[in-house]
Amino acid sequence: MSRPVFPQPSEVAEAHARIGEWVRRTPIIRLKGPGARPMVLKLECLQRSGSFKLRGALNKLLSLERAERKQGVITASGGNHGLGVAWAGWLLGVPVQVVVPAAAPRIKRDLLAAANAELTLVEGGYPEADALARDKAERSGLTYIHAYDDADVIGGQGTVVAELIEQEPAVGTVVVSVGGGGLAAGVGLGASLDGKERRVVGVEPTGIPTLHTALAAGEPVTLDRIDSVAADSLGAGRTGDIVFPVCRDRLDRVELVSDAALRAARQWLWDHVRVAAEHGAVAGLAALMEGRFDDDPGPVGLIICGANTDPSDLVERDGPVSQPEVPGIPSTSVIGPPEQGAQLSARRTVFATSDNLFRALGESEPPDASEDG
Fold it and tell me: Which residue from 168, 146, 167 is spatially nearest to 157, judged by alpha carbons?
C-alpha cells in the first residue's frame, strides 16, 4: 500500500495559478459586528457551483494525465463536492459520474441532477455511496476523486485563502468551517503564502466534532453519531489520513458551536448582508457572534463557503421584504408577496441581492443563468 502524499504550501500557490482562469474571484465585505469586531467576509458562497468545492475539483482534474481525463472520473457526494466535480468536468470536458446517497437533501440532489454528470442513486448515506463509487472506479478504470482526503483537492481548496490575503492583507486570523477537513487543511497551508504569519481556527458543530475528536485522540476517529442541522455539508464523520496531520500542524485550534448558534448566524448574515448561506458555511460567524475570537489577532477573516441551500426559511412569507442598508450595497426592495410560493420568492430575493453585491463590489458580471450553464 502506497504512503499518502502530504501537500505543502507551495502546492497551494501552484494551484492558485493553475485554476485562476476557471474560478470566480469571489468578493469580500469589510464590516464590524456582531460585537463591533472588525471582520472580513469572504463570500465564497458566490463561487461557481455554489461553494468552494469547485477549486479542489478543478485542481484535481487539471493534475490528471490527459488519458485519465478522457476516461472520466467518479466520486461520491450528496451535495457540494459532487457539484464541484460536475462543474469542473463541464468546464474541462471531462466525463463525470457521481454516486449520490438517497439521504442527501432534496435541493442538492436536484442541483446534481441538473449538473453535467451521470448520477447513480444509492440507498443509505455517504459511506454506502463512497463504497459503490470506489468499486465502480476499480471495475471501470475511472479515476476516483475523494471529497477531501486528497493532496490535489486540498491544494485547490487552499486557493480561497490565497485570494483572501491578496484582497485584504491585514487579516490576522482566518476562520473556516470544518467537515472532513479538506478546506481547513488547504487554508492552513495557504494562510501565510505572503510571508505574514496568521492564525487559522476551525469551527465544527457540537453534534459533528470530527476534527476536534481526532485532535484530542491524536489520530482520525470515526464518530458514532452525526447530529446537526449542518450535517449535509459538514457531516463527514471522520477526518482523513492526509488531512489530519496538516490540520494538527497548521490550525491553532478547533471551536465547537451549537445548532442554535448556526441558525442565528445564518439568519444574521441574511438580515444584515442579504446573503443566503448553508448552515455549515456560517460556523465561523456563529463562533464570532459568541465572542470566541475576541483575543485573536484581527481583522478576522471568515470564509462563507457554501450557498446550496433552500432560502425559504430566511425570508418573510407575507408582504414585501426590504434589503437592509449595508455600506457599498444598493438598498432596494427585492421581493413582494409570493407569486408561486415562498421558495420561488426567496430564490428571487437571493438572485437580486447577489446581482447587487457583485455590482457594488466590482464584479463586471454578476452570476447569472447563462454563465452557470
Answer: 146
Name every residue whose Cβ is closer than 8 Å to that of residue 322 and which is 6 or more positions away in sequence.
Answer: 331, 332, 333, 334
d(CA 98, CA 85): 8
Query: Is the separation of the CB atoms in 37 and 70 below 8 Å?
Result: no
pLDDT at 335 over 80: no
181/210 Cα distance (integer angstroms): 9
| Distance separating alpha carbons of residues 248 and 318, to the nearest angstrom | 48
Q: What's the Rg (C-alpha) of the chain?
A: 19
Q: State pTM to two decimals.
A: 0.84
Question: How far, in Å, CA of 300 to CA of 277, rounded?
Answer: 19
Place of cell 481525463: 69
Q: Which of 234, 232, 274, 236 is nearest to 257 (CA)?
A: 234
Q: If you classify domain 9-51+152-311 with CATH, what class do you get?
A: alpha beta
Asked if residue 77 lies in contact with residue 47, where contact means CB atoms within 8 angstroms, the answer is no
Encode pLDDT of 245-271 as tens digits: 999 999 999 999 999 999 999 999 999
Sign of the dihedral defined by the CA atoms of residues 273, 278, 281, 286, in that order:
positive
Q: Return residue ranges of the chain for CATH 3.40.50.1100.
A: 9-51+152-311, 55-150
State mean pLDDT over 165-187.
97
Q: Which three-class secondary structure state does DSSP give residue 153?
A: helix
Q: How far apart are CA 61 and CA 65, in angstroms?
A: 9
CATH number for the domain whose boundaries are 55-150: 3.40.50.1100
Strand-pair partners of 149: none
Q: Give yes or no for residue 348 having a pLDDT over 50.
A: no
